Protein 1
Amino acid sequence: MTGGDKPRTILVVDDHDALREELADYFTGLGFTVMQAGDGPTLSAALRLARPDLVLLDVDLPGWNGIEIAEAIRRRDASIRVILMTGNPTWVSPALSINSGAFAVVEKPIELSRLSRVLKAALL
């Protein structure tokens, strides 16, 4: 980002507080505005209040299916990029993620350098 640019907003959605906080701190350090949600209802409320540029979304939220959430975000606003996070990469195939409208899938544990590259590509 350059000095006059409005900070981009990332919504980090994960039910694991420590990971969500780590990612929020990391993105804040890179100059992003960061919103957080730990569950589906909080995610829904956040999307009603603001329009993030990117949603970093855990596929396996308790009681919520991340693939279906990604599809719903895409239907609502196709300009919002979604990056899925999963601890089970065999469950989230590339075809399934593309069909959901997600830009990419990253595996947990999160490698910040890889995530940073994916994030930059998504926001180009």
Protein 2
Amino acid sequence: MLDLHRLHVLATLAAEGTMTAAAARLHMTTSAVSQHVAQLEREVKVPLLVRHGRRVVLNEAGLALVGHYPSIAEAVEEAEAHVRSFQVDVHGTIALSAFPSFCSTVLPDALMRLRRAYPDLHVTVRDMEPIESIDHLCSGQIDVAVIDDLHPMSAEGISLTVLARDEVVLLQAPSRDIPTSISATARLRDYADAPWILDTEASAFARHVRSLCRAAGFEPKVVANCSNLVASLGLVRAGFGVALMSELNLGAATRDLDARPVDPPCSRTILVATRVAAGQAPSVQAVIRALQRTTRVRQHSASSG
């Protein structure tokens, strides 16, 4: 029987053209990609590739197999979702991914809500950048992904549910001297000479912050790149720099910091992504509902506190 994951590897290899590029896209080693393809060739009992130096090209059999992959994957998942729709209770295992700051703030409460409501539902969690989450979602390694809209991505075969419109705020230590004028909002151009704390260089949010600063007329002087929210808040608290962050990060951990809306206003949309074929499964819907409720509670708490 054909293995869907190996078919996905072959389809990615066809799109990327080299084992190295496919491995990077799949977040696997080159050796693992090669092994998956070799196993698939053994299963179908015909060669699937023609090698031209470092590049690989699918032969006629390989192209035929890849051509069937989307319909095979969708049909299998639709069948699984259809069967699950007959369940009267929510159980099983859901693999969930979310970007790091969401994992640190909203997700813990959502997971505990799910555990109380559905003790037979088991959720596994990985923190990932949104693009990585979508890749894992499409390959079937993740069932539910929390992402944002800061970068373009293909929505083919993906169902998106809006969780929240998330305002971006500027955080600084209360004793900072920059800017000298006190106002209800933080004008980005007033922070041109301030030291900045950003997410990791590869993150979409860090690139978004840089673009906002450039639009305000300056290049941020970055003194730290941190994916860890606690570390970022600690550096801000010490006066080491300022940071732009999600309003959802506001709470008990930020009450001693100066948080201001950004001028000009800036926001992003937080979304839940699922595969269309599996999106109506009871377990997936239970996870989405828990994420929606917890996000609303968190947003209300942030705006009122």
Protein 3
Amino acid sequence: MPEIFIDGWQGTTGLQIVQRLKQRDDLKVVVLEGEERKSLFSRIAAIKKADVTVLCLPDSAANEIAGSVPESARIIDASTAHRTNPEWAYGMPELGKEFKDKIASSNRVANPGCHASGAIAILYPLIKNGVLAPESLISVTSLTGYSGGGKSMISDYEQKGYSYSRAYQPYQTHKHLPEICYVTGLKNAPVFLPVAEPFYSGMMVTVPLHVGTLNGIGSPEELKKLYSEFYVDGVISVGEIYQGGFADAGSKHGRDDMTISVDGNSERLTVTAVFDNLGKGASGACIQNMNIMLGTDERKGLVL
């Protein structure tokens, strides 16, 4: 039975991974308690023994532990530390066979960031297919549930409450921009607006596009067709997100899939990705990548 070690299991992502994997009977979940949890020696020993380790740590700690274990140790890093490192596989298998194959064969996999997952899912197929030039100037708006801010923001919302003025809370330019450019090939970082909203988990990433800037795409239907042909595995799919004229950023709460939606006309389009920042944006993606590394069905244990 494969052994999965979660290093940093007491954080938001780590706790969710532990809770979810403990429901499975095909693997063993390992965590360290008390002083062992802080011991570099104990953590390295656990990593050496495990079939796969998931790092749910700050960037500096993830760098330290990754540099302290043998190359044979199989690691998924949920931090930002290795997402633009070409020696690490980028953990978004939907982007193509080469991505999935590298995840399967690699001992080092960088789990995507939550905001970046939506932006990359929208932009990568366009640049890959020559529809959007890498030099394009792009803007991205991303709404996230307050769990995206970690323990401090969760405590702030749930213990202190929020006023109407905080119901829509933009925050400063985000660390996911280098990741978005690295994976998609964009030459210019997008104008990026991340916004925290007063619901626990969920995410909605939107990219507006002028049809005149797109090569070979003249209507919403043509763009939907492009995405439908690119995403065929069921984890990311094309669909409608508007109900009664409105889209709900929290509609994928508790799920691990992502829906890409295209709206607009022959002049202007908006492409929107809806998913759960803790699902496809964090723990669900980790579990999917772990499944691929173990050679099992990548959807096993996912909520789709």
Protein 4
Amino acid sequence: MRIYQSEDYQAMSRRAANIISAQVIYKPDCVLGLATGGTPVGTYKQLVEWYKKGDLSFAETRSVNLDEYLGLSPHHEQSYRYFMQDNLFDHIDIKPENTHVLNGLAKNPEAECAAYNKLIQDLGGIDLQLLGMGHNGHIAFNEPGDDFGLETHLVDLTESTIEANKRFFESRDEVPRHALSMGIKNIMNARRILIIVSGEEKAEIVKKAFTGPVTKDVPASVLQLHPDVTLVGDKAALHKLVEAGVQVCG
């Protein structure tokens, strides 16, 4: 695992965007696994900026997103499809038919999940998977206790995740209780993984995930077993790793 410590959120976002852009330049038709949430917003903003400057093209790139709320339409402002359009897809030259997000309105969620697994396989697998990490160590919507062998599946969101996401909705009651999510197996099958973390509130779980045992209680800890993982974080998020003696690059 390679660990890069950046001065602040902006520098972290720029470094992460550098890694993604290098993948796209090296393999223009690569398959990017993309994430949502607050942490990758700055990374996507930087990619858009480089695209607008003419430094980068996504014309041949394919993408698959990690997850989607069950019950939200693609046009709902809190759906992850809407998030991706608003923060990235609408501002670059990626072809709409090459962007893939789980269907939150699927009448048969299990069939939707099976079809998504096949889609990833048909695309040739994920070249680079971008991840954030929740306060309880979840990656995508794989919560503590979930089986590491799961592929895309229907998830019952935990109370802590619902609580963390309520800030995006008018009330806690409006937060969806279920989601469709890639499983740990999908994520671990990616050729490369890039995980980004920011803020003091992530410092303790980052330390648990990357210096503690591999355990279902901390889903992100499984990344210790992947052969090609890059962790990029700001000083606030990584300082407990540094204090624990973990070697990081500046």
